[in-house]
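Checklist before submission:
- one chain only
- standard amino acids only
- sequence pasted in full

Submission:
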Amino acid sequence: MSAAINFRLKKPELEKKIKALEESLDRDRSWIMNEAVEAYVENHEWQMQRIQSGLAQADAKKFVSKSKVDDLLGKKK
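Returned file contents:
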């Protein structure tokens, strides 16, 4: 099942870029917009999961030691 959604592009130059993608990928605008929205949503879902995981670890007082952070950043002790 699909749903039709209309919206306005805030940046006119995006329309030109979308048209260029249509031609180079030999795909229609609907396919390109679906791919873009799916990638955007998946990215933000991933970010929110990571943030929630980090908050849960912080609530459980599970922190990385200073020496581990220094090691990860390549800092000398």
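Reviewer check: The longest helix spans residues 29-59.
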